[in-house]
Amino acid sequence: MRRAFSEHSGRTALVTERRICTFRDLQERVLRIAGLLRRLGAGPRDVVGLVFNAHPEDFYDVRLATLEHGATLLGIAPALTPEAIAGMLRSVAPRVVFYDARVVPEFPRLLANALPNSRAVALAGPLGDYEGLLREIPARPSDDDIPPDGLTAIGLTSGTTGVLKGITLSNAGYAESCRMFLEVLQRLGALPGQAIIVGIPLFAAGGGVLVPALAAGLTLHLPDRWEPVRLLARIEERRLSYAFLTPSMILDLLDQPLERHDLSALRAVLYGSAAMPAAPLAEAIRRLGCAFLQGYGMAECLPPLSILWPEEHGSREDPAAAETLRSSGHPYSGVGIRIEAGEILISSPTVMAGYWKDPERTAAQIAGGWYRSGDLGAFDANGRLLVLDRREDVIRRGNVDVYPRSIQEAASEHPMVKEACAVGSPDSEKIIAAVSLRARYRRDAETARRALPRWLESRLPREAVPDEIRVFDELPRSLQGKVLKRRVRDVLSARK
């Protein structure tokens, strides 16, 4: 990042709905925030918390400052219960926590009760003068050593049981992921001064592009929320070169009148974080006309693990075969992927350091340098990785394992279907397929319910044919822009 700040000083680094800043401006701000951390007593091995909000600039400010300073970033979702947040704070003990007083005005009290010696810093709102405070701090680079085995981030979640589960990432592992991602951008032909728009939230997979894109000299366009109409308008008006999206976001774009927009400047769409059905991917290749690139990875093992390169996607005139488009490409250079008892095992410099305060679980998941992903997969005849499904999502029907992805792929081939999700009933072997319809067919839900069973029967083995089709306006999604299979199950159970 220091090299990027120096080489691209006068170029525009970031564009949000409230701020446009050059690399020079961004560097000065990052150095001042890192200086604020030092003033507040946070050292390079301490934890710094950030309560997420809708403003991406708050994330990139704090994230880049912790990288400069060497501190560990702890992301906190404001939607968590106060009890869950308090448990998280006590477990990790951050020295400083940034928050938005407009979103969580009660946070200082919550932090004081959990950690009396920690400091809450209001990024915005009626409490304190954050911007005034930063102006008093000199923009001076940190001279602390950043240990490779130190932690760059901790991702903690708290399920319905209230038991904390955390993923820890080392400085070395994160740096390797950034280096590899930068190589991907360079192979795509990314040049300083070009721009990328990131539809995926920065606190999710979108954060992985932050450092590599800036290191490549790209301008990052970061919207507050996902709106396909506004994304297309931004690409057209600003002549943006790249977009980083989830498969669900690409499906949203296909419901838009793409041909009415001048998208000739768009060079490539990078996509990942979930499987992309082959049929709508081929449609996207034909209608958008740009290159596509898929990367496989996960929070426990940062991408890129495997890549489906643009040339493997085919062209606008001739998209690749469905078998290729369903794959996740070949393992990336320096990454080992093997299949053991159907499960994908990964050896990569980007594998997490371990689970937070859980050595037994860490030892069970990482053995002999190989991470057990929980994804089931196989290699095709050309050595491309096929991610079949998550182990816990496989539906057992009699003596046969049914992969929901196979049902979703078949449903997505129907011209009326936008998005599909197949789940098993928790108390029987019944399979339910939940689908949303393309915009022009929204009023024909009954037609879809009648047509889809015959369609799926003609494309699936008998044991994989769903017992029931449910039609939604939209399938429920997470804040990260992915279908929430758990939420689909809950909605279907409530509709019984």
Q: What layout of secondary structure does this protein have?
A:
Elements (H helix, E strand, L loop, with lengths): L1 H6 L4 E4 L4 E3 H17 L7 E5 L4 H14 L2 E5 L5 H11 L3 E5 L6 H8 L4 E6 L5 H6 L15 E8 L5 E7 H18 L6 E4 L11 H6 L3 E3 L6 H11 L3 E4 L1 H8 L13 E5 L5 H11 L2 E8 L2 E8 L13 H4 L4 E2 L4 E5 L2 E5 L6 E2 L3 H7 E2 L2 E10 L5 E6 L4 E3 L2 E3 L1 H9 L4 E8 L6 E7 L7 H13 L10 E5 L12 H10 L2
Parallel strand pairs: 1-10, 3-4, 3-5, 4-7, 5-6, 9-10, 9-11, 11-12, 12-13, 25-26
Antiparallel strand pairs: 1-2, 7-8, 8-18, 13-14, 14-15, 16-17, 17-20, 19-20, 20-21, 22-23, 24-25
Explain how this protein is built.
It is a single chain. The protein is an alpha/beta fold and 496 residues long. 32% of the residues lie in helices and 27% in strands. The chain has 16 helices and 26 strands. A nine-stranded mixed beta sheet has the order 2-1-10-9-11-12-13-14-15. A seven-stranded mixed beta sheet has the order 6-5-3-4-7-8-18, sandwiched between helices. α11 (278-288) links the parallel β12 and β13. α2 (23-39) packs across α3 (56-69) and α4 (82-92) packs across α5 (107-114). The longest helix is centred in the middle third of the chain and has 18 residues, at 171-188. It is globular and about 70 Å long. The N and C termini lie far apart (53 Å).
